[in-house]
Amino acid sequence: MWNFIINGVFWILALYGLIEIIKNIIYICTYTNLKSDGIYIIIATKNQENRIEGFLRTILFRIMYGKEECVKDVIVTDLNSTDDTMKILNKLSKDYDEIKVVNWKECKEVIDSIKEAS
Q1: CA–CA gap between residue 63 and residue 88 (Å, rounded)
Q2: What is the CATH number of the domain that holds 87?
Q3: Could you tell me if 74 and 59 are in contact, meaning their C-beta atoms sit under 8 angstroms apart?
Q4: Where are the beta strands (DSSP E) in 1-118?
């Protein structure tokens, strides 16, 4: 009887450990496209379909052709826009590798992970 209980506890702990490993691998694979050094620009936007494309293109122009070589990525998070802001952001992220579009929860997780690392 004790052997069965001990084996059951070990299997539960092993499964828990396996689930945690898989969860960490998924988390690491999700954010490996962000470089570990440099400066990130995080932009939160809501209902800015008329301005967001020009704003981001201006920032990208300064990064690519200006003196801001230490800027690695532009992270744009949408705060539940009701207009076409998200559509414009997705189009720009396909055109430029420097733009990463995430929802606000993912952005908060990235910021929290940076706080924990430092």
Answers
A1: 20
A2: 3.90.550.10
A3: yes
A4: 39-45, 71-78, 99-103
Per-residue DSSP letter, 81: -
Amino acid letter for position 36: S
One-letter amino acid for residue 100 of the chain: K
Q: Are 81 and 110 within one domain?
A: yes
- Distance spanning both ends of the chain, measured CA to CA: 48
Based on the fold, state whether residues 19 and 42 are members of the same structural domain: no
What SS3 state is found at 79? coil
Our count of domains for the chain comes to: 2
Number of H helices, E strands in the chain: 4, 3
**DSSP three-state, residue 72:** strand
Structural domain that includes position 38: 34-117
- Give pTM, 2 decimals: 0.59
| Residue range 53-109, pLDDT digits in tens | 999 988 888 777 766 566 777 888 888 889 999 899 999 999 888 888 888 887 777
78 close to 106: Cβ distance less than 8 angstroms: no
